[in-house]
Specification:
single chain; 333 residues; Rossmann fold; 2 domains; 17 helices; binds NADP nicotinamide-adenine-dinucleotide phosphate
């Protein structure tokens, strides 16, 4: 797969185009700021009751009503939450958006599973940064960026791909690398990785290691520190140097244990479980289940969260917070 970078994208990004960023949350704030710092003419669109209006105005943005912004924009960057996207597009964007405008999504979820039907006369693209908004902004300010995938889902003007690339350049992602995909591939990989590796997988791996040690009579505090606190050292090494590079930098004892025992931990049954999880992503079972829970008030999610918080590892984590966790930023949730 070709890796596209800034040198492959000619000229000033989105020159002469008016961009409206809808939503000023995690991605909306970061992308609006990066777009503006890249010289793009950008305004922010928020519903009247939005909690974010003050923050957007304080950052110097014109805050427009969503309908007005959709009517004015050449490029609509849709950074409202995925659950709200279908209704937002049907009620606010579709009745107002200009013929030939481009709709930019930051994730393919709403297109693949969220019931979104984009207006026919618009270009539709996905530009999905690989990381949270805070990091997207920090890396941009440091002169770098986050990689992103991008996809063209509807091209009525013949310019959709160019718009996706220019948008990705303006938010800093082309400084690192852009990967062309489809909304379906981007969404299915993203959901699978969250479920099997990044969130669902890694938390269960930590818990299973902790429980195994505690059941065998070892100190819960030391089990916590060894299985959880030290994880970022390994992740950082993998991130910086790859898996082989990490292995070159750990002790010979750790290396021998990794190579002779790892496959017994993540064995055939775990891989079978991963295949089932992937199938449920692809056939829509996961998305359908989640929507049903949300329609009924999110009780299943809340119950699962309560059960997780009551686990022994969480109790140890609370006791060791001062030693093992970052000092809490009073501004953060
Ligand atoms: N978070 C990530 O790490 C990440 C990474 C890559 C891509 N993405 C994608 O980026 C998009 C935005 O996600 P996010 O994490 O930035 O969401 P978020 O932090 O929850 O922010 C959502 C924004 O949407 C607004 N909003 C919510 N419901 C709305 C509605 N019905 N009408 C109008 N505005 C509404 C909220 O405004 P109020 O202030 O009014 O509540 C808020 O400003 C999603 O497609 C997500 O998948 C996220």
């Amino acid at each position: 797969m070709a890796i596209i970078t800034e040198k492959d994208i000619q000229g000033e990004p989105l020159c002469g185009k008016t961009v409206s960023v809808f939503g000023y949350g995690n991605q909306g704030e970061a992308q609006a700021l990066n777009l503006r710092d890249s010289g793009v003419q950008v305004s922010v669109a928020l519903r009247p009751e939005s909690r974010s209006s003050g923050r957007a105005r304080a950052a110097g943005f014109d805050v427009l009503s969503p309908g007005e912004a959709a009517a004015r924009a050449d490029v609509c960057s849709l950074l409202v939450s995925d659950e709200a996207m279908a209704g937002f597009i049907a009620e606010v964007v579709a009745p107002n958006v200009r013929e030939g405008a481009a709709l930019v999504f930051a994730h393919g979820y709403a297109l693949r599973f969220g019931g979104v039907t984009p207006p026919e006369g618009t270009d539709v693209v996905v530009v999905a940064p690989m990381g949270p908004g805070l990091r997207l902004r920090e890396r941009y300010e440091e002169g770098g960026g986050l990689p992103a995938s991008f996809a063209v889902e509807q091209d009525v003007t013949g310019e959709a791909r160019a718009i996706a690339l220019e948008y990705a350049k303006a938010i800093g992602c082309a400084r690192v690398g852009l990967f062309e995909t489809t909304a379906t591939e981007e969404t299915e990989i993203d959901l699978f990785a969250e479920q099997a590796v990044l969130c669902g997988g890694v938390t269960r791996l930590i818990e299973a290691g902790f429980d195994t040690l505690v059941e065998a009579g070892y100190s819960p505090e030391l089990a916590y520190l060894e299985c959880l606190y030290e994880l970022d050292l390994t992740v950082n090494l993998i991130r910086r140097f790859g898996i082989s590079g990490m292995r070159e930098r750990i002790s010979r004892i750790a290396l021998y244990g990794d190579l002779t025992r790892g496959d017994r931990v993540i064995g055939a049954d775990v891989r079978d479980g991963m295949r089932q999880v992937l199938n449920e992503v692809r056939d829509g079972t996961f998305a359908g289940e989640m929507v049903s829970d949300e329609i009924s008030g999110g009780a299943a999610l809340e119950d699962a969260l309560s059960r997780e918080r009551a686990k022994p590892i969480e109790e140890v984590g609370r006791r060791l917070a001062e030693v093992a966790h970052e000092p809490r930023d009073p501004e953060s949730p």
